[in-house]
Amino acid sequence: MIPITKLYNGVEMPWLGLGVHRAGSGSEAETAIQCALRAGYRSIDTATYYQNERAVGKAVFESGVRREDIFLTTKVWNTDQGYHSTINAFEASLEKLQTSYLDLYLIHWPQSELTFETWKAMEELYEKGQIRAIGVCNFLIPHLKRLMENSRIKPMVNQFEFHPELVQPELLQFCKDNQIQPEAWRPIMKGRVNEIEFLQELSDKYQKSPVQIVLRWDIQKEVVTIPKSVTPERIISNADIFDFELSADDMARIDKLDKNARLGEDPNIHHF
Asked: What residues correspond to the site Lowers pKa of active site Tyr (predicted)?
């Protein structure tokens, strides 16, 4: 079983989940999710922007796994931000996902003043019990500070790009200091971690793949991780990271691979 962490409101969240960004909107996503659930995953991360919420809902519904045992995440997209449009987007996501509630609802990107209206809607949905936890994606420290200054409930999760070449220690520490759970997207750098010489050395040392080394590094840094894959062998392999531990020295040496190098969009272009 994949271990869990507790968010500051007491909700339990698995340390490892399946990301479905760019997974097809039909059988590709469904097959990947059903494989993951059979392999013991209990967390699925999607988004309105991915255009596969309906496939996710179908896969979960047909899996035979109880809905209450699955941690289901989706996100409100930029063009849906604002108070009323967020409520509408949330209802549309519920319908596509074939569920009456979400475990985690995230703001996909900061969108200036609209984000405050979006967050107000999410706070109300949370207080009504329609969402078990609310959070954000791609928020840097200034974004988080402004949101927290203009809200009643602080985010429970911040999902952002995180991998050995983009460690963002100050952001990690800020999240820790404020009880905001960090969550990594693109943790294996689209597979590029396999090309990093030091990770290849660690692979030989621990008899684990470079991908498994990096996912284990995430967990030991207390960062929830959601590697994306639609390949059954890789989905299963990605979960095989709870039977070993990286030494403190090796953890520190992975940290030193940091180049502050982004593979995705820079959140700095979004301002409040």
From this structure: 75
